[in-house]
Amino acid sequence: MSSQVRKFNTFTFFKLPAAWWTGVRVRHMDQKTAVVTVKHSWRNQNPFKSMYWAVQGMAAELTTGLMVMDQIRKSGHKISMLVAKNEASFSKKARGKITFTCTDGDKIQEAIGQAIETGEGQTFWMKSVGVNKEGAVVSTFDFEWTIRLKY
Q1: Which of 34, 85, 135, 150 could lock 78 by a disulfide, CB 3.0 to 4.6 Å apart?
Q2: How far apart are CA 147 and CA 17, in angstroms?
Q3: Of the candidates 66, 89, 77, which has an alpha carbon nearest to the alpha carbon of residue 116?
Q4: Pairing mode, if any, of strands 79-90 and 97-102?
Q5: Could you tell me the mean pLDDT of each successive run of 10 residues in the chain, 151 residues long?
Q6: b/e for 118-141, b at 16 or more Cβ within 10 A?
Q7: Which residues constitute the domain of residue 47?
Q8: Could you give the CA distance from residue 87 to residue 100 in angstroms, rounded to a whole number?
Q9: Stated pTM of the model
Q10: What digits encode the pLDDT tens for the residues 120-141?
Q11: Residue 126's closest CA among 148, 146, 97?
């Protein structure tokens, strides 16, 4: 496990305790891709013995938000970030270990560049897909992120 991944998992413990206590863990992150896992357990299940949708949402949002935070930090500018919209679909009960992956990191740098160049807020959509150990998609989340320079 890289030191960056350990740093983000420590971040979840202190800043996103609900995610940490329900088992959400960062596994990989680079400029274009983030991977987060969560294992179905009694701490995160719904009455139907599968993973509660909100836990899946936390894991999915983390795959997108970590990359946004990291690229904002690397830009050297003060930039605010916020999820403006969210859409989700569920195709299978989430049981066992679920792996959420986002490969939309390239969208962030472009939006940051536009925000810095124009001084205007920017929006962009990022997708995170959750799959079970068999590789079957259990849920798909789309997040519309908004960023703007802080003055």
Answers
A1: 150
A2: 24
A3: 77
A4: unpaired
A5: 75 80 93 96 92 96 96 96 97 97 96 95 98 98 97 80
A6: eeebbebebbbbbbbeeeeebbbb
A7: 3-149
A8: 15
A9: 0.92
A10: 999 999 999 999 999 999 999 9
A11: 146
